[in-house]
Amino acid sequence: MTRSQIRDLAGVALYRHEAIGAVLQVRGEGADARLCVLTAVRASEPFAGVAALPSGPVEPGEPLEESVLRHLAVKVDVAGLAHLEQLGTRSDPSRDPAQRTIGTSYLGLVAADVEPALPSNAAWVEVDAVPEMAFDHRSVVEHAVGRLRAKLSYTNIGFALMPEEFTIAELRSVYVAALGHDVAATNLQRVLTRRGQLVSTGEMSRPGAKGGRPARVFRFADRELVVTDPFAVLRPE
User: Fold this and answer.
1) How far apart are CA 54 and CA 41, in angstroms?
2) CA 100 from centroid of its chain's CA atoms
3) Which residues are within 8 A (CB) of 147 and not within 5 positions of it... i.e. 6 or more apart?
4) Dist. CA 107–CA 92, nearest whole Å
């Protein structure tokens, strides 16, 4: 139960507003690549000792996006964020047992080749193995994953998950991890090329430790969000 709501002199209810960041990154290589979310164990009540997403109150005069970046900066180098977008607003009166709190959530993406330093209470957790979390943060993670997977079908948002340059094999492993299902490398290259997302650099990759033939190197044509196939989600299987 929350305490009686504080009101101003005109009788209008005053609510706490917080910003919540769900930061996703594909970690690992090849078949070991997994889509992960940044979590941190809370040090104080409510939910002390329980994993949560980076979050905190929006200060007076502070825009929402500045607020979420401020709270994320405590857990991760925000300079490593390749993309940030608002997910939605949460208003369940019981979402915070301490007081009525409105929450606005954000999706953040970090490229696979970035390794930001984390504080001791923070960790990357596979999205398929997220434990019970504080407040409604587990459902925020589910919302963030759903948003990412949907946008992979009709935008170039994959740019935010990838290094500046990559091979098709590297691109496929990231897409498979992000989508949660297999996808053929040839189909992926054909679709993204047809949509104007991929550009060949003209370079070839260096052979890996296990040898193998060099592969063509690509990059995304744009490194900011672009809708490339607005009707993709309406097409039949």
Assistant:
1) 10
2) 26
3) 85, 87, 107
4) 20
* Rounded Cα–Cα distance for residues 211 and 37 (Å): 33
Query: What is the radius of gyration, based on Cα positions, of the chain?
Result: 20
Supply 117's token pair: 């330093």
Number of neighbours of residue 182 by Cβ within 10 angstroms? 8
In this structure, the number of other CB atoms found within 10 A of the CB of residue 58 comes to 20
Helix (H) or strand (E) holding 199: strand 198-204
Residue with tokens 């690992």: 28
Per-residue pLDDT tens digits of the chain, which is 237 residues long: 445 778 878 888 788 999 999 999 999 999 999 999 999 999 999 999 999 999 999 999 999 999 999 999 999 999 899 999 999 999 999 999 988 999 999 999 999 999 999 999 999 999 999 999 999 999 999 999 999 999 999 999 999 999 999 999 999 999 999 999 999 999 999 999 999 999 999 999 887 655 568 899 999 999 999 999 887 755 544
Distance, in Å, from the CA atom of 126 to the CA atom of 112, rounded to the nearest integer, reads: 14
- Provide the token pair at 71: 């709270």
For residue 46, is the peptide bond before it cis, meaning its omega torsion is within 30 degrees of 0? yes
Residue 95 half-sphere exposure toward CB, CA atoms < 13 A: 20
The amino acid present at 87, given as its one-letter code, is: L
